[in-house]
Write a structure and sequence with these properties.
alpha+beta; four-stranded antiparallel beta sheet; four-stranded mixed beta sheet; 20 helices; elongated
């Protein structure tokens, strides 16, 4: 993983904690979770406050996610809202955190000036043992604490202010006034700097979870669809009257579900010609096949001309796999605005021709699911399915690793949002 670290492809764009008072605050939060203090003087954190360095120090990758449910968080600064989430069991953790930061910005700003905010994203489930446990999660609540009980003190001050306003003789109560002065020294003026987050309950919508080898849960108005490994406990048995179950290896059924629910965009000349996405996929597939055929191959010269030459030298292999000739044929068809009947195309090849519907609210998750069927598309996997990217990276030969790292570093990292917009959204 050294090459990934050096190029900021793993644990990149994190927030560096190196000021003594911030380290001390982080330790107070760890103490609040019953964890030992860190001895590190400098470490990095993601949006949730997760630190790869502290995970290594504690020898516990799950120190903020001990059961893969009810995720813990540590907030030292509102600046964390701009960071990625690098370790989580649920794909919507980042979305929930962004909503929490956005809707409670004033309170979090005021709180983190004085203290660290920590807590759990709590739901009604405390352990995930089968599919039913996942389906039982309908909403989550952010349970929030501070070591100095700032929010509790703010609540007390708010009550005292209301009493002073409404009780005619409350201003004569010296003990009340003294307590107010003492409390306001801790909280500041809560009339201008609220310390009480207002929005803490959120719906738990469509998501992917790492449980049971990876499960996708799509929630529609009248039906929930679970896509995963049929061997997962509770698969096809939990709420069969309400939930549809699809084997993730059944490409035909998964494709049909995405099509029927308007989640997938079929090949059309308008986006194929504008983005060049299918051409990129064909090139990446050729590189993947070359790597599989010749692991010691030098990819330093792997430009478009090199790829075209490799394809020409290996016609039988390319033809038997089928995707590259199909992409060429489909690109020609749609450029001439000819109709394309996807039913005529083998289900194993359909996903190579599609992308998530750009306007759909689930587009990130849909592209993640599509990437499950395109292991050769390293760029799509890095953008939408980093766990799969990192897992496969370990199996790649060194020359191919360097090539992929260079491609991602040079083409995606400089303009992440722009790249996604150009090809996928």
């Amino acid at each position: 993983m050294k090459l990934l670290h050096e190029n900021k492809l793993i644990f990149g764009s994190l927030y560096t904690v190196n000021e003594p008072h911030m380290v001390e605050r982080y330790n107070r939060a760890l103490e609040g979770f019953g964890l030992p203090h860190t001895k590190l003087k400098e470490f990095q954190i993601d949006m949730t406050g997760y630190s790869p360095e502290i995970a290594k120090e504690l020898d516990d990758l799950q120190y903020l996610d001990p059961a893969g449910i009810n995720r813990r968080f540590i907030i030292l600064t509102p600046d964390q809202s701009e960071l990625p989430v690098v370790h989580t069991y649920f794909s919507n953790t980042e979305d929930l955190m962004v909503k929490f930061f956005t809707l409670n910005a004033r309170a979090l700003y005021a709180l983190t000036i004085k203290d660290v905010v920590f807590g759990e994203i709590e739901d009604s489930v405390f352990a995930v043992e089968d599919i039913e446990d996942l389906l039982a999660i309908e909403q989550v609540e952010f349970k929030i604490s501070t070591p100095t009980n700032l929010m509790g003190k703010a609540g007390e001050l708010k009550t005292m202010i209301e009493r002073l306003r409404k009780e005619p003789n409350a201003w004569r109560d010296n003990e009340l006034l003294k307590k107010m002065v003492k409390t306001v020294k801790m909280t500041g003026d809560i009339r201008t700097n609220t310390l009480l987050p207002d929005e803490v309950i959120f719906r738990h919508n469509t998501y992917w979870t790492a449980h049971f080898g990876g499960v996708y849960v799509f929630i529609d108005e009248n039906e929930t669809t679970v896509i995963g490994d049929p061997s997962a406990p509770g698969f096809r048995r939990s709420r069969p009257w309400q939930v549809s179950y699809l084997d993730i290896d059944d490409k035909k059924q998964v494709y049909q579900f995405l099509l029927d629910t308007g989640r997938i965009e079929l090949p059309r000349g308008s986006w194929i010609e504008r983005t060049g996405l299918l051409e990129q996929r064909a090139n990446r597939l050729a590189l993947w096949m070359a790597k599989e055929l010749e692991p010691e191959l030098d990819f330093n010269r792997a430009d478009k001309r090199w790829i075209k030459s490799w394809v020409a030298r290996n016609p039988k292999l390319v033809e038997s796999e089928g995707s590259i000739p199909l992409i060429a044929w489909v690109s020609a068809q749609v450029s001439n605005w000819s109709g394309l009947d996807m039913e005529e195309i083998n289900p194993k090849h359909r996903f190579v021709l599609c992308r998530a519907m750009p306007e759909h609210e689930d587009r990130f998750l849909i592209n993640r699911l599509i990437s499950e069927y395109l292991p050769f598309d390293y760029m799509m996997r890095y953008i939408y399915n980093k766990p799969a990217f990192y897992k496969e990276y370990e199996t790649w030969p060194e020359s191919y690793r360097k090539f992929v790292v260079g491609e991602v570093s040079n083409n995606y990292l400089p303009n992440r949002a722009g790249y996604r917009q150009q090809y996928y959204h």
